[in-house]
Amino acid sequence: MFLQLERLTKSYSGRTVVDEVTLDIEPGELVCLLGPSGCGKTTTLRMIGGFVTPDSGRVLIEDSDMTRVPANLRPTSTVFQSYALFPHMSAVRNVAYGLRMQRIARKDADSRAREMLTMVGLQSRADASVETLSGGEQQRLALARSLIVNPKVLLLDEPLSNLDAKLRQRMRREIRMLQSRLGITTVHVTHDQEEALGIADRVVVMNEGRIEQIGSPRDVYERPATRFVAGFIGRGSFLANRGSKESFVRPEDVLIRASGDGLRGTISHIQFSGPVVTYFVDTPAGTLQADIPLKSDNGFEVGSSVTCKIGNEATFVL
Amino acid sequence: MKRVSLLLSLMLAFSLVLGGCATSEPELAPEPAPTEDTTDEEVLEVDPELVGTTVNVFAAYGGKEEIFDQFEEDTGIRIEFLDMSSGEVLARMQAEAGSPIGDIWFGGGVDSFIAADNEGLLERYVSPFAVNVPEEYKDADGAWTGISLVVVSVVFNTDVAEEKGAAIPETWEDLTKPEYAGELLMPDPSISGTAYTTLSGLLQTFGEDEGWELFSRLDANMPFYAQRGGEPPTAANMGEIMAGIAPGIATGADEGYPVVTVFPKDGTPWWPAPVAIMEGASNLEGAKVFVDWCLTKHGQEVLATHDPRPPVRDDVPMPQVLIDTGFPEADLMTIDFYEIGRIRDDVIDKWQKDFAAKK
Amino acid sequence: MLQPGSDTVSTDANRKERSSWSAPFRAHAETALQWLMLASLGVFILWPIAAVLKVGLFVDGRPTLELIRSALVDSRGLLGNSVFVGVTATALTLFIAVNVALWATRSGSRLSKPLFGLLLLTMISPPFVTSLSYVMLFGRRGLITYKLLGLTLNPYGWHGVVLMQGIGFTSLAAILLIGVLRGMDGRLEEASRDLGASPTSTIGRVTMPLLIPGLAAVSLITFVESLADFGTPIIIGGRFTVLATQAYLNFIGISNLPVAAAMGILLLVPSLIAFLLYRHFMGRLTFYTKGTGSAGEPMALPRWLLILTGTVTFMFAAFVTLQYLTILFGAFATTWGVDFTPTLKHIQGLPSTAFASISRSIRFALFTAIVGSMLGMIVAYLLERRRFWGRSGLDFIATLPFMIPGPFLGIGYALAFRDAPLALTGTLAIVLLNMIYRQLPVGTKAGAAVLSQADPEVEDAARDLGAAEHQVVKDVVFPQLRPAFLVGFVNTFTASMVTIGAIIFLISPGTKVATIELFGAVRGGHIGVAAVLANIIMLVTLAVNLFFSWLMLRRDATKEGVLSVPATRAIDQVIQRSDGGR
After folding, report:
1. Which of chain C's ends, N or C, has fewer CB atoms near its CB within 10 Å?
2. Does B118 reach chain C within 8 Å, measured CB to CB?
3. CATH architecture for segment(s) A3-227
4. What is the ipTM of this complex?
């Protein structure tokens, strides 16, 4: 194992923020920690980076115990949510900083920093002051600054959350390509499931300090291990079953027809979103969402009585 | 002018005593000034080890910069000084409770010196040159020695007087007239030695009852009591007030202010301005040289040149400007300084109750 | 191109090597630093205060309120006078400062910039100078009242004190309020206009309420300053005296230490009450400096307000200009009030000791400004970035000198350091230490203000890239603290150049500074010499401040903003004290 987290636990004034988190990460793997705000994902990341000391548990990198090693001596490097660029230094000085800390001569450090800036497409902005850079440029600069020290583990703390939607898509691709090319082990924290599913080799879904599920993006979407994961990732409807059970249905797994076998209900609301039309059907078991591809839409109206056929469902015990 | 030669002997005698064999004559000063009258010659010997050392002085004296420059030139001992009224120096010494704050206390109200001596804050030193100073100008035990006389005067603004149609007063009695209503300024006697000496001098001169009665009529003409001793003459210079009670003469006249000096004919308060060595002085020997120097004829002349006050030695002439202001005609009060020091609290208490509280 | 793994080995070796010593060393060095700071603040702030309390509250080793009671009874309403002057001077200052600040930020006039310069210049005010100019201009033989108008007024009394204090404190108050107004989110005013409010109601319902925390802070500062000011009442109060004056005279003049201490303690009471009131009512409010401000022009003032603020501003500017010109010309007039022939005799006649004193002032002020600001930055760093035992205590002690009148701390130093183990009487050290610790709150709070707004992740980033703790401080924290350091430097340097209240109790012949020389000239009635000294002090202070600001800020784009925000926030934080847990 390259990076191991062993039963990491952290409490703040009596509230457990990270609760026995155990995780093994392979070399070169990109793992996303995904969860709602306050789920402990950032604290976990900060414990890996050495900014937070766990109450118990261990962090191991290549089998050596890093738990008590201060941040400056750990072979990890973080891209912060705010980027945390040094406001009083130029772009190239920001990138060169990590090299300078390794006692590399200024000239040498500067020229390597410029190479790195070229790699992230910032060669023309090398001498610009940090405040004059755009959001995307700052993001790339932060990434360059982290990569130049050759970290064994790259830590990304919501790196894309300050960018607009289009740029976020592009940076997501760029980060993934760079990461694959360098083969750098990466832990990426995000609350954006689309980002997590789109970029990660494996997704770790966290809630209230605990890991709910670890799996490939497909796994956690198609086979949510817990009710929380099901509800948190993607859309879907919970339907009351007999007894204490309830089932979870993805909207794309529902077919609606005017009549026939299945769950009967009435259409209460219709939402158009381009490739699909979403119908909200009130049934005795609850409201069901159904995504119907535009091409095969029958054009039901609000108030129509329909029958829903469910193709695939997951069942949870309440 | 007779000029006393100051023999700056590089004090070989000191080493001779230690060495036990006299081999050479003490060296003379680099520039032995020719003297007209060798019988008057006073020799101030300075230990060569003291040359280049520093004496720290708390001073309340006019022309002190020039006086200290001359001392440095004569003796080779450096002076660092701080301008501070004697009450302030006393307060500092008391606050520091015996930690020495300097070497020399130069000028100011004799009452503060007596108070300091009572608290053991002064080093006793009877200068060999003090023999020339009359008894009434010095402490018998050498706690302090008078170097000049401070004569209280009334600094009077003639412009304001003309405007108000008032005449130049000649006596304290004159100053109680209604034409000076609101125009007489005196410092707070609890703060100012000038004011306290004036008040207690009036009481000793006119007798207690008559003195207080006279003072109450003076008080009626005062708009308020100044918080600083230097304020009344300044205010009189500036025309803020017609008459201000001041230590010394109206020096503002030299600067062009329309002021004259009045020595009240019915009794002019005065006191000897002392020099003293502070207890625990770090440069005790240097301080002794300074005291000696002040009391030499030459030193007295330097003092009189830079601050026109009556000298304490008979053989030093009165500054001309004092003669011009009519000082020789002034009738100096007979004041027992130890006595007025003794009754100080009672006098101030009565003043506080009967006068200050009413302002 | 990046070559993965090219220097992994050397990097690892490097890390291992450093890890062997720096971790334990770091922990110990930091703990030592924290204790050192706590100890130094305890010794140089708490102990002197305790020394005064001991003299004022104990008689023969027994606690008693007798001295306090007699100070209260004998003071003949001095406490009332002090509070009265404090309140009226504060009201006057507030009125002028609000008008000046509104006009400076909202009139759009090209004169705003020179006005700001004038405010900065008049913040540098050597002691006694305003009072001196008041007498020179408005005294019975004043240039204006007598020479021009032919009036013979009695200028002495409470009205002169209130007027001179009120105007004297306005420059600082206006600068702080301008800072608050500039930092205000302009979109709030735009929103108000957008919702149909007239400019007048926008000012009344949005701008002024947002200004309230600033007004409260400025009021408190002015009130405390007024209480502590003894120079103005001594010179122009006439028969009207206040507690600060009497405490000063009791100590300096009649050497009644216990009564002086008791009066000092009495003087602390209204300061403390004002402080607690402020904390109680305003503690929850904060400066609304967040937001990038309006993109467009600042909102124009309604016509009537433009006229009002313009008039008040013009009158204020004219008055202070006149004051400073008086001092300037006073240095060259043969005898003020009698003979106005230009002369250089006051300059030529300056005693040689005066130059030594001025040189001493500059050297002392430079030393205290640099050392004091560094100390302030270190304390700010510990307060903002470290959790440790005694942190809130450190914060409290570092705030104290701000609330304590200068003479109180001066007397405290004189009392505390006269005996072993720290017998500093008559030394240079006692003067410098007093200057440094008296001004510590402003530097500390400016530093804390900058750090509380700076992203702590930036420091994490440096650690992350391999910087050890001392390198983080050197490379990241201190560079960001530059504006705060500058605020601390300018404040401490200026204060040290013009200070007299505390050090008059501490100086010895060998440590005489320019203000003492000036005090002597004022006291001796040598107006020309006093004016020369005042001018030299002002010019030197201005020149050094400008040079140092240029040195520190030449690379920054937004100079004024950089300075005014930490300055305002520093004052705010001095008063509020940052709350314990963040």
Report:
1. N
2. no
3. 3-Layer(aba) Sandwich (3.40)
4. 0.77
